[in-house]
Amino acid sequence: MTSIFDDIKSAFSRGNNVLHQLILINVVVFAVLLVLRMIMYFTAGPAAFAYLMSFFRIPSDMGMFAYRPWTIITYFFTHLDFLHIIFNMLNLYWFGMLVREYLGDKRLVNLYVLGGLAGGLLFLLAQNTIPYLYSQGNAVMIGASGSVIAVMVAAATLLPNYTFNLILIGPVRIKYIAAVMVLLSISGATGGNAGGNIAHIGGALLGFLYIKQLQSGTDLGRPVQAVLGFFSGLFQKRRPLKVAYNNPSRPYSSGTSASTRAQSPSHSGSMSPSQIEIDQILDKISVSGYESLTKEEKQKLFKASQK
């Protein structure tokens, strides 16, 4: 058991590991709820577990949602069905790897969070405005499907002709895989899981819009990074103050030497692409589209966007 906690701690202490962290959060929440469900069913009864779940799943009832607004976030980290979480996490891993490789960890997080928020908001809007859904009574929703389909559609929008080798089918371009998932969600919007499929559509629209806006120079995920940066700053340890002792006969400083400090800016600056290179890449996008860029050019564009 100790090694499990050590593995979890290691996964969150390493940098550039966002994809595995997202999957790990979902798996840990799933495992904890599975154990709690078994314990509570045999002790307090199913009603007690249903009450516990009301703090995780998003309700369509706006009055109840007003008392639990955080559920618009917790719902897309929560699963109770084994096949549900397996299907979502496999798709998140396959398509998330592409997004992470070409756009970086931060934008993968942006897509996951914004996709879940878009799915939750569209779920609330549809359940409270569409007569057919409203007549069905109160509904609740859990699962990362809205977030995952946002990542899928984003990857397909960014790299439409990238191929996956599917079992029994062979190589298939990811734009067709994403299209099938969207069509299945549209067709299921009138079925028993209407609210969930509507959330999928919200996530898909967000994934498409995010990439299109990113290609035009606007990152819709900046508010997400600002919020995450604020909370991460609360838990980070403050660096100890550097003490400098000035003595004319024996100068001493505990900080980095002046020569080292003078060299570091020029070194880091040389790693960034020049403005001429960026202009050439942007010209290439305007003529041939984003897909025509090489992997190196995409990485340069990504680095420039971080400035």
TrEMBL record:
<dbReference type="Pfam" id="PF01694">
    <property type="entry name" value="Rhomboid"/>
</dbReference>
<feature type="region of interest" description="Disordered">
    <location>
        <begin position="246"/>
        <end position="275"/>
    </location>
</feature>
<feature type="transmembrane region" description="Helical">
    <location>
        <begin position="139"/>
        <end position="159"/>
    </location>
</feature>
<dbReference type="GO" id="GO:0006508">
    <property type="term" value="P:proteolysis"/>
</dbReference>
<dbReference type="InterPro" id="IPR035952">
    <property type="entry name" value="Rhomboid-like_sf"/>
</dbReference>
<dbReference type="InterPro" id="IPR046483">
    <property type="entry name" value="DUF6576"/>
</dbReference>
<dbReference type="GO" id="GO:0008233">
    <property type="term" value="F:peptidase activity"/>
</dbReference>
<feature type="compositionally biased region" description="Polar residues">
    <location>
        <begin position="246"/>
        <end position="263"/>
    </location>
</feature>
<feature type="transmembrane region" description="Helical">
    <location>
        <begin position="108"/>
        <end position="127"/>
    </location>
</feature>
<keyword id="KW-1133">Transmembrane helix</keyword>
<feature type="domain" description="Peptidase S54 rhomboid">
    <location>
        <begin position="69"/>
        <end position="211"/>
    </location>
</feature>
<keyword id="KW-0378">Hydrolase</keyword>
<feature type="compositionally biased region" description="Low complexity">
    <location>
        <begin position="264"/>
        <end position="274"/>
    </location>
</feature>
<protein>
    <submittedName>
        <fullName>Rhomboid family intramembrane serine protease</fullName>
        <ecNumber>3.4.21.105</ecNumber>
    </submittedName>
</protein>
<feature type="transmembrane region" description="Helical">
    <location>
        <begin position="72"/>
        <end position="96"/>
    </location>
</feature>
<dbReference type="InterPro" id="IPR022764">
    <property type="entry name" value="Peptidase_S54_rhomboid_dom"/>
</dbReference>
<feature type="domain" description="DUF6576">
    <location>
        <begin position="275"/>
        <end position="307"/>
    </location>
</feature>
<feature type="transmembrane region" description="Helical">
    <location>
        <begin position="23"/>
        <end position="52"/>
    </location>
</feature>
<keyword id="KW-0812">Transmembrane</keyword>
<dbReference type="Pfam" id="PF20216">
    <property type="entry name" value="DUF6576"/>
</dbReference>
<keyword id="KW-0645">Protease</keyword>
<keyword id="KW-0472">Membrane</keyword>
